Each structure stands twice: as C-alpha cells, then as structure tokens.
Automatic annotation (TrEMBL):
Membership in a protein family: Belongs to the bacterial solute-binding protein 1 family.
Name recorded for this polypeptide: ABC transporter substrate-binding protein
UniProt-listed PANTHER family: ARABINOSE-BINDING PROTEIN-RELATED (PTHR43649), OSMOPROTECTIVE COMPOUNDS-BINDING PROTEIN GGTB (PTHR43649:SF29)
InterPro entries listed in its UniProt record: Bact_solute-bd_prot1 (IPR050490), SBP (IPR006059)
Residue intervals passing through the bilayer: none
Native source organism of the sequence: Streptomyces lancefieldiae
One Pfam family per UniProt: SBP_bac_1
Signal peptide span: 1-36
Length: 465
C-alpha cells in the first residue's frame, strides 16, 4: 500500500480524484488515542491452503469451483501478505478453488507487463492506484467486472469508492483495501516524559516537536528511502494549506509546480525537514531509512527511541505490531494537524482488477467486494476497508475502529493520493520525478525555488507538456 508506490497515470475525472477531506472535520476529531485492544498483529500460517471444508458460512453467494485454480498478484509482503492469504484461504474453503499468491514488484504495471509478454499473467492483480487501473484498461489487460461482482460492490461501497474503480464508465476495480494517510503516530512514553500534548494545528505540531526535542529525543522519524512517504508529507500540507480546489488542479497539472501555493507548501515542510536534529539520523539517515524501519525505530528502545513521532497511514499498525508496543497505550496517534483552515485527510487504496476473465476470477472479485472478506483481514490489524457494510467491531482495537468509522462517515467527500494520479514517470518511480526531487529537497530544504522548478520540469515532461 500501500499505500506505497507503483505506476501512476493521469486521471481525467476530478470526481474520482477526491479523498476524505470530511474526515478531518468530522469523525476523525474523535480521540484516536483511546486505550484499547491488542497490537493488531495477526498470527497464523503463511499461506492459503486450498480446498478444505466448504461448510464455512458467508453472506455473499459464491459458485462451486472445485478443480479451478487462479492466481492473484500483489506487491504486499510480510504480515500484510500473510493476512491477505488468510482471506484467500477462506475463499478456497467456500468454493473449492485453489488460489496462488504471486509476489509482485514495484511498479506493478511493469511487473504485469513482463508476465503478460511471457504469456503468464495472473488472473487478478491488486493495483494500488487509480492510474494503474486506467493504464491496465488502456493496454487491453483489464476485464470489466461481471454482474455479480458489480452487484456486490454496489451494495457495499459508496458511489465515490465505486467511481475510482471505473474507467470510461465501466467498473474494473474493487477497492478492497483503503488507507488513511493523514495520521501521525507517537511514542506515548516519550510524550509523557516530555510533557508533550497532541497538536491540532501545524504551529502546535512545531511546539510539540520542540518539547520532545528538549526532552532529549529526536522528534521525527522519516522513511525517506521510500520516496512515496515524502509525497504523502507534501500532499497533506498542500491539501490543508492550498485547499481542495488547488489540490485537484495540481493533481491534473492544470497549475504548475512553480505556483506560489507549491512553494508555500515546500517552505512549510522545511520548518521540520530543515530543522537541525529534528529528523532521526538527519537527512542522510532518513534517506537510508525505509518506511518499515521508520515506524519500528519509533517504538523500540524504551523511552529513548530514535524518534518520538512518525508520520504515515493507518497501515503503520502492521509495523508497530512487529515491536512490543501496544496500540492505544504505547503507540498512539493523532490526525495530521491543520496547516490551513481544515486538517487534511489523504487516502489511498488497493483495487482488485481482473486480467483473465473467468468464473473463478469473477467470483474472487465478488468475494473481495463482500464484508465477509474484509472482516477476516480487519480483525488481524493493519487494514482499513472502504466497505460500508463491514461491522467495525471486527477491528482489533479502538484506534483502528475509529479510523475506519471516520472513513465510512466521509461518504463520497474525499481526495485521493495526488501522486497516485500522476504519470508513473513523475509520481511513482524510484529515483525519478517527484520522489527524487523531494528526496533532494529533504537534503537541501532551503532550495524551495529549485525544488519547485525541478518538479515542474519533470511534471511537464511526464504529463506531455
């Protein structure tokens, strides 16, 4: 998720580019730090087992698929992959089909292209961006959802989440997994020792950071080795500061990256990125730190971790679960503070897209659109579903439950991750475009004009002028 990185292609519909801005003003104002639950780290076997007892109950109607086999490709690794395999295992029990998980590499569109060229595409792929779905359709790879999958999707998803899986008016994607990418997780013991409080505005965040710093702990952990984390930082600042209209315009490259609003957002980011000793390991250390490590190093080392806070989405719970920290007690979270008038919420997601049209592939898409499938992974932690008929009691702790309730409460009023809407060359390729320029800016946050100019040059080339 990923909430991470892969191919990005320009969207043509602004409606489908919205992400839950209402979350910030509404349900996310609920306390996200309620004591609760376990650490959200699921356990169990490492894969689906095939066949098995088909007596398992489900509310969704699935066909008998004895003897059928299919494969599902996704970039998910570690606990995320293990937990998804449990969802696939339940599908096997219900239908008799055999499902193979195919580990994919980023960018997944390139991975799929090589598989298709070799004559061995997976039946279904989990695509992390709306642009990836569009590119798969444009290349003739993706197949529309059938009647049963479309019906299940319509019953369980708001129109907005259906729309972002559409291309040319046809439904291609089931957004099985969502992400709230506007959260800052913190080490509760560090805050307690420092006397720090949860901020609601950017200025308050700077004050909190100073309080943590004065207590002897570096304020922020940044996973700068993964450029997508830096684009997420920028998007949150920009959405709150510049507003949703300009966010949409910049996402479609209808305004330039040299626009004053972009420079203002970069200048704001520099208030943290450019502050001496505010980032664990400095810029050099951050650029060598991948996202998982940026999370775990915030919650290991007792009350003297490498950093007191780490920014990223709800999916960070998977990595927190790899430490001894308990979510809701040791590891707490607050919404990304308001930089402008309204706190931002940026969302992302992973959609199931059919590449080989078959009864089994359509059945799997139908299953993934159901609350039954979502409930399996929800209870394991580190997962957020846009399925509005999923009972939120399935989530393993109060923190995750409130984040999920906030997502559903937003309905269709949302903004999707900006870099996920951009062409791959600009918004989704390691060492290039926005990822590379923001990594360079992390190293030299004084060069606001240079960063904006480079962003615009790369965007113009990627968008075609």
């Amino acid at each position: 998720m990923r909430t991470s990185s892969t191919i990005r292609t320009r969207r043509t519909s602004k409606k489908t580019a919205r992400v839950a801005a209402a979350l910030a003003a509404g349900a996310l104002t609920l306390s996200l730090t309620a004591c609760g639950g376990d650490d959200g780290n699921g356990s169990g076997d490492n894969g689906s087992q095939g066949g098995g007892d088909k007596e398992t109950s489900a509310t969704v109607t699935l066909p008998e698929l004895d003897g059928e086999s299919l494969s599902v490709a996704a970039v998910w690794t570690g606990t995320e992959q293990k937990n998804f395999k449990k969802v696939l295992a339940e599908f096997e029990k219900l239908t008799g089909a055999k499902v193979t998980f195919v580990p994919a590499q980023d960018p997944i569109i390139n991975f799929l292209g090589s598989k298709i060229a070799g004559g061995a595409p997976p039946d279904v792929a989990m695509l992390p961006q709306p642009g990836a779905i569009k590119q798969a359709v444009d290349k003739g790879w993706a197949k529309p959802l059938g009647a049963e999958a479309t019906k299940e999707l319509g019953e369980n998803y708001s129109q907005g989440w259906q729309d972002i899986g559409k291309v040319g008016g046809k439904q291609y994607g089931v957004y099985y997994k969502a992400a709230n990418k506007s959260l800052i997780w913190y080490n509760a013991q560090v805050f307690e020792n420092a006397g720090a409080t949860e901020p609601k505005t950017w200025d308050e965040l700077l004050t909190t950071a100073r309080t943590v710093y004065d207590s002897g702990v570096t304020p922020f952990s940044v996973g700068g080795a993964d450029g997508w984390t830096l684009t997420d930082w920028f998007e949150n600042v920009y959405l709150s500061q510049a507003g949703p209209e300009k966010y949409d315009q910049l996402a479609q490259h209808e305004i330039k990256w040299t626009d004053p609003s972009v420079k203002k957002a970069l200048t704001t980011l520099a208030e943290i990125w450019g502050k001496k000793d505010y980032v664990a390991g400095g810029a050099t250390g951050a650029l060598q730190t991948e996202f998982p490590a940026s999370v775990t190093q915030t919650f290991t080392g007792g009350d003297q971790p490498k950093a007191g806070m780490v920014y990223e989405g709800d999916f960070a719970q998977v990595n927190i679960g790899e430490t001894k920290a308990k979510i809701g007690t040791d590891a707490k979270v607050f919404p990304f503070p308001a930089v402008g008038g309204t706190a931002p919420v940026v969302s992302g997601g992973d959609a199931a897209v059919i590449l080989k049209d078959s009864k089994a592939a359509q059945a799997l898409a139908t299953w993934l659109a159901s609350p039954d499938a979502a409930a399996i992974q929800a209870k394991l932690g580190g997962f957020l579903s846009p399925n509005r008929n999923l009972d939120t009691s399935a989530y393993p702790n109060e923190v995750q439950k409130k984040i999920a309730e906030a997502l559903i409460a937003a309905g269709d009023d949302f903004r999707f991750d900006m870099s996920d809407q951009a062409p791959q060359a600009f918004g989704g390729t390691p060492g290039k475009g926005e990822w590379k320029t923001l990594q360079d800016f992390l190293k030299n946050p004084k060069d606001v004009a240079g960063a904006a100019s480079k962003l615009e040059a790369d965007a113009a080339a990627a968008y075609g002028g």
